[in-house]
C-alpha cells in the first residue's frame, strides 16, 4: 500500500535543503540579533524568514495541514497539537550557534497525524547532512541507514546535554550538579552541539549514547524523536515515564539500560509545558 505521507516527507526534505542554503548564505552577511524570553534566547531575521519560507511552501502543497513553528509561537500562535496533520518546525535550531558562527545549525521539521509523530527531517546545514526518519521504515543520513550504539556499559559512553536558556542560579546549579554526577560515574565524556535536533541525530547515528535536556521545546525534538526511534533508540521523560512531546523535557538514548542509568542522576527542575499558555 502506498505511503500516504511519503509526498509530505519528500517535500520536507526539499524545503529543508532550500532553507539550509538560506542559512548558509545568511552566515556570510550581517546577522540582526534579537532576544525572546531572555538575553540568551536569541532570534534573528533568518529564523523568521526561514520559518515563513517553510510554512508558505507547505501551505501551497498541503493547504489543510496545521503548523507549530518556533517563531510563530513566539509571535503568539498557540502551541496546541491537534489530530490534524501538523508540521512541527524549528527553522534554525541552534540560533545561538548561528549568531556566533559555531558550525552546528539544523533545520528541524517534524510531522504528526492524530498526535502521533509520522516522520522527522533534520538538515544539519553547515555539515550538509540530511537526516530522515519515517515511522516503521527506518532512519537514514544521506541515504545511509542509521543505528544507535550497542553500548550497555555507562562507563564507556559519551553523553550529550545542554545548558539551555534557563539561567537562574538555582537551575544552573541543578544542571551542573547533574553533569557532575554523570561525569563522575565515570562516563567517557559529556558533549553538546548546541542544537537538540543535531544532538538527537548523533544518538541515532551511534556517535553518542544519550542526549537529555530539560527546557527544550516540541519543535527542537519532534523530528529527532522519530529519527532516534527509527534508529533503534528509546525516548523517555526525565523521570522515567513516557516521552511527552509537549513537556519540554526528554531523554533520548541508545537503549533503556543507558537511559535508566542517566535518569538516576538527573536533578529535575520545572519547565513550563509548550501547550500551556505562558503566564502574562
Ligand atoms: C536550542 C536547542 C538547544 C537548547 C538551546 C536552544 P534554538 O534551540 O536546540 O537544545 O539547549 O537553548 O533552545 O532556540 O536554537 O532553536
UniProtKB/TrEMBL annotation:
Among Gene3D superfamilies, the record links this protein to: 3.40.190.80, Fructose-1,6-Bisphosphatase, subunit A, domain 1
Pfam families registered for this protein in UniProt: Inositol_P
Keyword Cytoplasm included in the entry's annotation: yes
Question: What is the annotated quaternary arrangement, including any partners?
Answer: Homodimer.
- Positions annotated to bind Mg(2+) 2: 90, 93, 220
Involved pathway(s):
Polyol metabolism; myo-inositol biosynthesis; myo-inositol from D-glucose 6-phosphate: step 2/2
Q: What is this protein called?
A: Inositol-1-monophosphatase
Q: Which cofactor does it need?
A: Mg(2+)
EC class of the enzyme, as a word: hydrolase
Q: Which UniProt keywords apply?
A: Cytoplasm, Hydrolase, Lithium, Magnesium, Metal-binding
Q: Which reaction does it catalyse?
A: scyllo-inositol 1-phosphate + H2O = scyllo-inositol + phosphate; 1D-myo-inositol 4-phosphate + H2O = myo-inositol + phosphate; alpha-D-galactose 1-phosphate + H2O = D-galactose + phosphate; 1D-myo-inositol 3-phosphate + H2O = myo-inositol + phosphate
Q: What is the lineage of its organism?
A: Eukaryota, Metazoa, Chordata, Craniata, Vertebrata
User: Where is this chain's protein located in or outside the cell?
Assistant: Cytoplasm
EC number annotated for this UniProt entry: 3.1.3.25
Task: Specify the species.
Answer: Chanos chanos
Q: Does the record carry Metal-binding as a key word?
A: yes
Gene Ontology process terms (BP): inositol biosynthetic process; phosphatidylinositol phosphate biosynthetic process; signal transduction
Q: Which residues bind Mg(2+) 1?
A: 70
Q: Give one GO term, molecular function aspect.
A: inositol monophosphate 1-phosphatase activity
Q: Which gene encodes it?
A: LOC115807890
Q: Name one GO cellular component term.
A: cytoplasm
| Homology family | Belongs to the inositol monophosphatase superfamily.
